[in-house]
Automatic annotation (TrEMBL):
<feature type="binding site">
    <location>
        <begin position="229"/>
        <end position="230"/>
    </location>
    <ligand>
        <name>L-ornithine</name>
    </ligand>
</feature>
<dbReference type="GO" id="GO:0004585">
    <property type="term" value="F:ornithine carbamoyltransferase activity"/>
</dbReference>
<keyword id="KW-0963">Cytoplasm</keyword>
<feature type="binding site">
    <location>
        <begin position="53"/>
        <end position="56"/>
    </location>
    <ligand>
        <name>carbamoyl phosphate</name>
    </ligand>
</feature>
<dbReference type="GO" id="GO:0019240">
    <property type="term" value="P:citrulline biosynthetic process"/>
</dbReference>
<dbReference type="Pfam" id="PF02729">
    <property type="entry name" value="OTCace_N"/>
</dbReference>
<keyword id="KW-0055">Arginine biosynthesis</keyword>
<dbReference type="Pfam" id="PF00185">
    <property type="entry name" value="OTCace"/>
</dbReference>
<feature type="binding site">
    <location>
        <position position="80"/>
    </location>
    <ligand>
        <name>carbamoyl phosphate</name>
    </ligand>
</feature>
<feature type="binding site">
    <location>
        <position position="104"/>
    </location>
    <ligand>
        <name>carbamoyl phosphate</name>
    </ligand>
</feature>
<feature type="domain" description="Aspartate/ornithine carbamoyltransferase carbamoyl-P binding">
    <location>
        <begin position="6"/>
        <end position="144"/>
    </location>
</feature>
<comment type="pathway">
    <text>Amino-acid biosynthesis; L-arginine biosynthesis; L-arginine from L-ornithine and carbamoyl phosphate: step 1/3.</text>
</comment>
<feature type="binding site">
    <location>
        <begin position="265"/>
        <end position="266"/>
    </location>
    <ligand>
        <name>carbamoyl phosphate</name>
    </ligand>
</feature>
<feature type="domain" description="Aspartate/ornithine carbamoyltransferase Asp/Orn-binding">
    <location>
        <begin position="151"/>
        <end position="304"/>
    </location>
</feature>
<dbReference type="InterPro" id="IPR002292">
    <property type="entry name" value="Orn/put_carbamltrans"/>
</dbReference>
<dbReference type="InterPro" id="IPR024904">
    <property type="entry name" value="OTCase_ArgI"/>
</dbReference>
<feature type="binding site">
    <location>
        <begin position="131"/>
        <end position="134"/>
    </location>
    <ligand>
        <name>carbamoyl phosphate</name>
    </ligand>
</feature>
Length: 308
């Protein structure tokens, strides 16, 4: 495993084999099959979050505790970043205090600026471009539900957002067929779609379309996310109109495979992008998926901090 000391800013920062190793370690940690050695000194993870968080913040904190380490909250409004200190200067200073930085921000360019100046691993804990830590949990969950990821068919229904981007790239690397269905003005970034299609190397298909029924037909996993992400609240009413017909309800799920599972990265707006019936139904693996954030983060940190 070769992730020691590296940054994790997006899905493509790991090869297909590294993704498989990461998922294998996460699963082994969850099952109690792997015990990591106690580090010689206490490792510290800095959490620099410009956006609210429940699952990402708590899973990182618990993951570090289970690795014998600590987390330190570094909210921008309580640091000099909030008063105009440059990202480069901040990254250089924080690198001398902590062993890794998990950053939740808006612009992917800011993450890249932190990584360029940092001498410790920088982790994308969510940006407007990607949410790579989320898809570790997503594919760990699918591994627990199906014997083999390769050749699996997944549908994603909703906004072509950061989660959709990371799903496209990870599915392509892992050989998972992915159909993304969005309203016409809300598709994923075409450049990300092209990158995913290149990464697939003919092992799987990556398709963007606008018919949620067609996307779900025969799919073994159906994924959705909120229609208005953080920072888009002002457009929520318009988005609800534009996404009419994209709610993952029993009628839409009926087009999927009989053994299909339902995924959602949470938080959920019940009755909008997903019905309460489906979220709480027998096909739902949503809260298993949320639980798996912990094991995905723990495995990632163990690899980046060379604790394996």
């Amino acid at each position: 495993m070769t992730l020691s000391g590296r940054h994790f800013l997006g899905v493509e920062d790991c090869s297909c084999q590294e993704w498989l190793d990461l998922l294998q370690l996460a699963g082994a940690l969850k099952r109690g099959e792997t015990r990591l050695p106690t580090p010689g000194s206490v490792k510290v993870l800095g959490l620099l979050f410009s956006k609210p968080s429940t699952r990402t913040r708590v899973s990182f904190a618990v993951a570090m505790a289970r690795l014998g380490g600590q987390t330190m909250d570094l909210p921008p409004d309580s640091t000099q970043v909030g008063r105009g200190e440059s990202i480069a200067d901040t990254a250089r200073v924080l690198s001398s205090y902590v062993d890794a930085l998990a950053i939740r921000t808006f612009a992917q360019n800011d993450l890249e600026a932190y990584a360029q100046a940092s001498t410790v691993p920088v982790i994308n804990a969510l940006s407007d471009a990607e949410h790579p830590c989320q898809v570790i949990a997503d594919f760990l969950t699918l591994q627990e539900c199906f014997p083999d990821l390769n050749g699996l068919t997944m549908a994603y229904v909703g906004d072509g957002n950061n989660v959709a981007h990371s799903l496209l790239l990870a599915a392509a690397l892992l050989g998972v067929h992915l159909r993304v269905a969005t309203p016409r003005r809300y598709g994923p970034d075409p450049a990300v779609v092209q990158r995913a299609q290149r990464l697939s190397q003919g092992r799987c298909t990556v398709t963007v379309l606008h018919d949620p029924v067609e996307a779900c037909r025969g799919a073994q996993a159906v994924y959705t996310d909120v229609w208005s992400s953080m920072g888009q609240e002002a457009a929520a009413q318009q988005r609800r109109r534009d996404f009419s017909g994209y709610c993952l309800n029993a009628g839409l799920l009926a087009h999927a495979a009989p053994d299909a599972v339902v995924l959602h990265c949470l938080p959920a707006h019940r009755g909008e992008e997903i019905s309460n019936e489906v979220l709480e139904g027998s096909a739902s693996r949503v809260f298993l998926q949320a639980e798996n954030r912990l094991y995905g983060q723990q495995a990632l940190l163990a690899l980046l901090l060379d604790l394996v």
